[in-house]
Amino acid sequence: PWTKCDNTTADYECCHNDSSKYYWYVSALQATTSISEPGGFVPGVIISWTVGWVITYACLFKGPESTGKAAYFTATFPYVVLICLFFRGVTLPGAGRGLAVFFTPDFAKLIDPNVWVDAAGQIFFSLSVGFGSLICFASYNPVKNNCVKDASFISIINCGTSVFSGVVVYSILGYRETQTSIKVEDVDKGPGLAFIAYTTAVAEMPLSQLWSAAFFIMMMMLALNSEFGSIEACVTPLKDQKALRGVKREILCLILCCIMYLVGLPMCMQNGLYVFTLWDNYAVTIPLLFVGACECLAVAWLYGLDRFNKEIEFMSGSYPNIYWRFCWKWLSPILIIVVLMSSCIKKMIVPETYESYVGCEQHPLNPEVAAGTETWLRDIAFPWWGQMLAAILVCAPIIWIPICCFLGRNAPVPDIPMLEGMEEEGYVIENHVFDWRTEVQEIKTALRIGQKGQEEGTDDKNEVTAV
């Protein structure tokens, strides 16, 4: 339906740009001009939202058993579609142009903190780091499980899939440029990549209905996989609470699905895309980076890296090498903290904006709010209440970490069954007491040793020169 517009309307957008963008904003979303104009609920969006959560609950209410069965299809089907789209995309005219853009870096972007935040957020998203879903699913594994092999395998497959999917998308965007004269570089932000740019290219392909159906089914499978992990990350720890152990899993899962369904209802209104942008910019990326930094600091510095390394050796059979130890204790927390701090500083200095659909110059959607533009889109700053909501969205997931630390500061440490098994096999487990003075002294010792080795190397070089 996005291949042509309704010519009976007085809108001029279709005549001046591509019909996919017109269909996305006008027909599918029925978007208003600003986030302050809620409009009403969009029937198609709210029906899709409801069906999605019904499917999610149907796949989750029985626990990992039903989730695993569903994952056989939801995890493998996207690869089938990607492979088919790959062979079709790279054989289309203009595919080389798209791939050239994809593999040509723009180093000027590296000075923008938002680029680093988006990159870190993408890795956290794709690997499910910081959500808790990996910990929940891993709790069902046996103790003697090679977690190092699993982690390495998943990371390689994930990054390979990201590059592979990028080749598929940009090869088709190159074909779009040959058909519509829309530059590959003019990639729409956020959902626009899938629902505007990609659909424009697919509409020009032979058997466009087949490729469109396959693509959107793949998108639905990916969304369901994400929901599986998010719900499981909530259900599993709640079931471990003494007060909720008597509640059936089906009831608990139903309550959580209903809560998340209600939270997402504002995104089903005509200003829902702008609400989604607000949540996406603040409620996810920054809290994820904060949680990731806390996890690194808690494991490597508070729990004790030596004890953690012995646990890895006990489970996998091999002691982590110096690369992993260096990343866990130094590289990862430093990089995450630097990216997080720079992003927060920029967001406080530069007002956050969202792309608003304002219509074309000849026929603006709402002239009282904003004038139309050539691209129909205009960056508009969030209102004061949007900025307040953004602060709440950032603090809501983060505030529980210091609260729980304060409430549990004098709580007794429960016995860890795995440590008992390690002691039975001859491992010496020492209690790690975090002390800043000790840690700083270790750093000074390491630096002193490195400086001494460098001086000795310089002395040896001078002796050779003298000879």
Note down, in words, how this protein is organized:
There is one protein chain. The protein is mainly α and 467 residues long. Helix 11 (208-239) crosses helix 12 and helix 13 (272-316) runs parallel beside helix 15 (384-398). It is built from 18 helices and 2 strands. The relative contact order is 0.12. The model is unreliable at 460-467 (pLDDT under 50). The longest helix is centred in the middle third of the chain and has 45 residues, at 272-316. It has helices at 13-16, 19-28, 43-60, 64-74, 77-90, 95-102, 113-127, 133-138, 147-180, 192-203, 208-239, 249-263, 272-316, 322-349, 384-398, 400-407, 417-424, 436-466; strands at 353-357, 377-381. A two-stranded antiparallel ribbon has the order 1-2. It starts with 12 loop residues before the first helix and ends with a helix.
Instruction: Give helix and strand order, one letter per element, not per position.
Output: HHHHHHHHHHHHHHEEHHHH
What integer value in Å does the Rg equal?
A: 26 Å
Could you give the count of β-strands? Answer: 2
Q: How far apart lie the N and C ends?
A: 83 Å
Helix amount? 55-70%
Low-pLDDT stretches are 460-467
Contiguous helical run count = 18
Quote the beta fraction: under 5%
Major sheet details? 2 strands, antiparallel
Structural class: mainly alpha
Instruction: State the assembly state of the protein chains.
Output: single chain
The chain-level mean pLDDT equals: 78
Q: Which sequence of strands runs across the widest sheet?
A: 1-2
- Outline: globular
